Amino acid sequence: MRQVTLLVALAACTPGPGKEGDTGATELPADIVVSTVALRFGLLAPGEEEVKRFTVRNDGGAALEVGSIDIAGEAFTLLSEGTFTLEPGEDTDLDVAFRPPVGPLFEGAATLLSNDPDEPEVVVELVGEGEVPQLILEGSEDAFGDVFVPCTGRSTITLRSAGTQPVTVSALELTGEPFVLVDPPALPLVLAPSETAQVVVEFGPAAAEVAPGELTALSDDPDGPDSVMLAPPGGYVSVQVDPFTAPIDAPVDILFALDRSCSMVTEGEELAGGYEAFITTVEEVTDDWRIGVVTEETGCFTNGILSPEIEGYAELFQEAVTTGERNPLSERLLALTDNALSATEDGRCNDGFLRDGALLHMIMISDEEDQSPLDWKDFVTRYLDYVAEPELLKISVIGDLYLTCGRGTGAAGYEEAALATGGLLLDVCDDAWSEQVDDLALASLTALREYTLSATPVPESIEVTVDGAVATDWSWEPERNVISFDPPPTSGEDIVVTYGVPDTCE
């Protein structure tokens, strides 16, 4: 144990009137004089001790009786007698010990009560400092910079030992879901005075609103845990609002191309039987439709262009899909439909079928792969010349998707064209395929069911309203960046799609 004794000398005093040397007849009372108003101790480690002394003198004419000395402050102790009497002119030394527990600053007082009528209570302040561990976390709330979904950013937090004793970090606690400690140091971590360590926090926002986080370090710092707030902005780099209006009587041009080889006779009859359900679904949304059926290699529609204005259009459709003979293009429907579209030119047999701004939905039915001379990509490129926008072209296929009927050659060519244009795939080998003709009808209503977004969204952020009410009957197709409705909105309804736009990460 270190012990230091410091003597504080009593200043010389000149006797006042009525005191020593006074020739008057009146005896003056006791007069207490203390050599200092404060004792200030040095910087000690826990368990060390320092002793300091102050002097009490009686400058009065009567005996000074000190009845008690009260020591306030847990770190201070009076080592001398707490009561004593001093005759005029006498003095005595009092010793006070400072022995700090763990803590940075200690304050106390020595209060002397005596019979001095002018100063019955005299206070000597006691001040001491203890050597303690102290931990400070240094970091900035905005140290991450601007980090938006789906990017990540990192911030370095410094752990600084700011005390006079080594500090031991026992735990690091991180709150906030977007925040993660990257390779945290092994704990417990001991830092010598002035030593530092660094902790890396990674931030990866996943939503529009990000709650602040906090890093807290637990240690043997007597002041308790220290922490730093983590509050980067997060969210989306921007929020996009795309308004749409459901078209009123949107034009739809539907072209059926049928393989009329022997194995396909039944499929024509199935299609004829499902026509009522097909056209009913279409007419629930729009009355502006055209239908053409092609089976012959000329490309001319059997029974012409069908529309709501044509009397007996249902019977004409049913007749068209069940007549016709096998021909060189029966198993080359990509080429057959190309002929049919060429025949829509002015003055040719299908003139008037295509309308500006109309959706073109081509439905091909065969139990064999396509055997056209060109690749399916070439045909799709040619078809796009007949629509105002690529989104207005749709190819659907009723084919041998699983190599289970026909000659088992599958639906090559047709299937790829359908997938490339977002069309529907039905299995012609399934006896119940005709029960799904209403799905073909819905695919014909793409102009009402699908809406292309102006930017790529964060999927979780998409919100859709129809005429101001929150809608749930929609889905987002990432490959084409479209919102699809099932069933489609009513003609003329206002559709608003709001979504967050993700950041481009470096």
Structure class: mainly beta
Can you tell me the CATH class of the largest domain? Answer: Alpha Beta
Distance between the termini: 61 Å
User: Unreliable runs, pLDDT <50, ≥5 residues?
Assistant: 1-25
Number of domains: 4
Query: What's the total number of strands?
Result: 30
Number of distinct helices? 7
Strand content: 25-35%
What is the fourth-level CATH superfamily of the largest domain? von Willebrand factor, type A domain
Average pLDDT value? Answer: 88
Describe the fold and architecture.
The protein is mainly beta and 506 residues long. The chain has four domains: 5-130, Immunoglobulin-like, CATH 2.60.40; 135-235, Immunoglobulin-like, CATH 2.60.40.10; 239-245 and 452-501, no CATH class; 252-448, von Willebrand factor, type A domain (Rossmann fold, 3-Layer(aba) Sandwich), CATH 3.40.50.410. The protein contains seven helices and 30 strands. The strands form seven sheets. Strands 1, 2, 4, 6 and 8 form a five-stranded mixed sheet that branches. A five-stranded mixed sheet has the order 3-10-9-5-7, with no helix packed on it. A hairpin with a 6-residue loop joins strand 9 (105-114) and strand 10 (121-130). The longest helix has 19 residues, at 265-283. It is rod-shaped, with a radius of gyration of 48 Å. It starts with a strand and ends in a 5-residue tail after the last strand. Residues 1-25 have low confidence and may be disordered.
